[in-house]
């Protein structure tokens, strides 16, 4: 029996997942369409049927990341939690810990330099994360869990710096520590000044 061909959507998803896996192994700037094709067992022209340019593949990666992260942030914000900010940060760090390529892709100077649209998408993703953090902080301020002395936007900048710094250290340390546990612990220390 001949194996059934994958749908275009399934093949695109497989290409995106493979690009992310390779980015985690070798760094995003070293990922080629040829390497993706080889890993999947396709020809390079087959990759180009789904993504005419390498930039298109990376834009699809970024779209997938944004969709996945946004869903997790929203779930954390709408869950009956006693700590909206902690829930958003925990959801984010949990996703990053399962996808070591994420900080590498977002912070890759080569990808940002070589693909202006990708740099723009990265900025949109960061803006969406800032909005989710600000919303969580506002919820916690309204509930009296955080002080209202600082604007949610300023507090979100602090939280984002903690998350990015911890994720970058984790990536450099080759995932050598519990990202979620350490991130939550450092976040608690950083926001202790925001307590009511």
From TrEMBL:
Residues 32-51 bind DNA. SUPFAM superfamilies: Homeodomain-like, Tetracyclin repressor-like, C-terminal domain. InterPro entries: Homeodomain-like_sf (IPR009057), HTH-type_TetR-like_transc_reg (IPR050109), HTH_TetR (IPR001647), Tet_transcr_reg_TetR-rel_C_sf (IPR036271). The keyword Transcription regulation applies. Signal peptide: none annotated. GO terms for molecular function: DNA-binding transcription factor activity; transcription cis-regulatory region binding. Pfam families: TetR_N. Residues 9-69 form the HTH tetR-type domain. Keywords: DNA-binding, Transcription, Transcription regulation. It comes from the Bacteria. This is TetR/AcrR family transcriptional regulator.
């Amino acid at each position: 029996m001949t194996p059934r061909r994958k749908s275009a959507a399934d093949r695109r998803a497989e290409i995106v997942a493979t690009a992310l896996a390779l980015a985690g192994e070798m760094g995003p700037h070293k990922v080629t369409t040829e390497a993706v094709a080889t890993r999947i067992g396709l020809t390079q022209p087959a990759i180009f049927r789904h993504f005419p340019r390498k930039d298109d593949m990376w834009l699809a990666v970024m779209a997938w990341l944004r969709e996945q992260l946004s869903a997790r942030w929203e779930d954390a914000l709408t869950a009956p939690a006693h700590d909206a900010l902690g829930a958003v940060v925990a959801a984010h760090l949990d996703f990053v810990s399962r996808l070591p390529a994420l900080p590498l892709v977002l912070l890759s100077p080569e990808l940002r330099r070589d693909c202006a649209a990708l740099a723009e998408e990265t900025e949109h993703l960061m803006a969406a994360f800032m909005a989710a953090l600000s919303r969580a902080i506002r919820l916690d301020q309204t509930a009296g869990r955080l002080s209202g002395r600082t604007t949610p936007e300023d507090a979100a900048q602090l939280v984002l710096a903690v998350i990015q710094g911890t994720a970058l250290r984790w990536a450099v340390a080759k995932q050598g520590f519990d990202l979620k546990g350490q991130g939550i612990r450092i976040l608690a220390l950083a926001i202790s000044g925001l307590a009511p």
